[in-house]
Sequence to fold (132 residues):
Amino acid sequence: MEKIITALQGRKKSVSRLTRNSKLFKTILNAIIEKKGENILSLDLRKIDEAVSDFFILCEAGSHIQINAIIDNIEEKVRLECDERPYHIENGHHWALADYVNIVVHIFDREHRKFYNLESLWADAEQMEHTK
Fold:
């Protein structure tokens, strides 16, 4: 978790603001759904001054293989459809992170998502569930 915090603190949030209707947001969401990510939730952090990005997108995967498949698919789809590359990627055995500055994607296995419980850490953020 320290790696996540260090990576996010080392960069600045972009001035331009995104919405859930932005191409980047939709592309990330579709890449997660395509690889069967579960319990997809977005947190709108735009009204929180201390937030490191506009949105967090969280999801779960059933195995480290699926975590890798989701993070790889996000990176590929965003590069092809939005012509953007991540500012930073972290890839562990139980979680992965893709930082697109205004959107940070967190992919956890079920146990680690419950343990870190980012939803409660950012309880002031508007939450939205996303389904297929």
